[in-house]
Amino acid sequence: MAGGKETPRQKLIGIMYLILLALLALQVSSAIMEKFKFLDDSLQFANNAADRNNDKVEQSIDKAVRDNGSKPKDVQVLEKAKQVRKEATEIKNYIDKVRKDLVDITGGLENPEDPTSMYKGAKSETEVEVMMVGADGGKKGRGYELQKEVNSFCADLTKVTGKPFPNIALDGKEDKRISSPEQKKKDFAELNFAQTPMVAAMAVLSNLEADVLKHETNALADIQAEIGADEIKFDQILAAYRADSRVVAAGTKYTAYLFIAASSSTLKPTFQLKEEIFQLKRVKVN
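Above: the chain's sequence. Below: its structure in token form.
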């Protein structure tokens, strides 16, 4: 995945996803429902923090461009950052709309005044499957549109940044985390929403949003590195001299060249020597 190593928050979200998979394999009970809700709430909290951080990164890019004189190339970098933020916001809003609709069709919250309260239809599976997969396995549910929209976002990031951003919404055969042969036969919608309690589906959507935010974070980091990329900024300056001779006889003229060298501590230049090798062939002359 583009963007380098994962942050501690991203690693934590990955662990939460593994916990989600483990909980899905357990028998459904009220205690399990509460754990799903706790997992969903935790993912939402982490996602909100990541979103705020990405907003700060965009502001930092904007400030750096202005401080650098708003040069045309840097302005283009800022536009790329804004495009990434715009597309990420759109897909996050789309996922949030799916979450809201799932809550509504399963009866809403037990306490409408408390957004963290348990869902009335936390255990509902049929409503989730019909909405996300389709009635009677028709495969016309919103899960297929969701997969298309999320993966289109990944393709757009690749286009904007010029770096590969792999798809997030995967079918069973594409997801390396899935080892069961039966699960690998399922498509994205079936894998995540078929025979799945509503509260677990909410956690799945939160994890999907976390992956979107991770892609956004990595894209912004790549873009931020492009500011002033065509300039070399020196932070080390050295005064030096070179004399024609180390020894000067008394009364003779002393000559030396004074110069100043500047370098950057962030750059590591390399030198290459190309050698051309000519092969001589002996020709026998009669």
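The two ends are 66 Å apart (CA to CA).
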